[in-house]
What we know:
Order of helices and strands: HHHEHEE
Structural class: alpha+beta
Number of strands: 3
Number of helices: 4
Mean pLDDT: 82
Shape: extended
Strand order of the largest sheet: 1-3-2
Largest sheet: 3 strands, antiparallel
Amino acid sequence: MAKQKTPKQSERRELTGLEKLGLRVSAMINSPKAQLERRATIHRLDTDSDEAWDGVMELLAETDGLEMTVIEEGVVELRWHQQSDADHCAGEGEFEPVADEVEVVV
């Protein structure tokens, strides 16, 4: 017999406006065309709340290596450069210390 779903299992949490907009912007940035051109134009929809739009714009503004240009109200162009290995900075705890001397036993 098939198991019956309890009410708790069948409930899904609704995404917030910020989460929906974040997913939409992420999809735009990660699209093959945007990745090839290293730019994406983000348009605000009528369904995007002020709080969600401002929140995502703030997060994008804080992102290193991302240039934001406001084209007009509700339209932002994002540009970025391909990050090279030299541009990458190691974060705390990203590397483990190496012993000063290594003994090789044959």
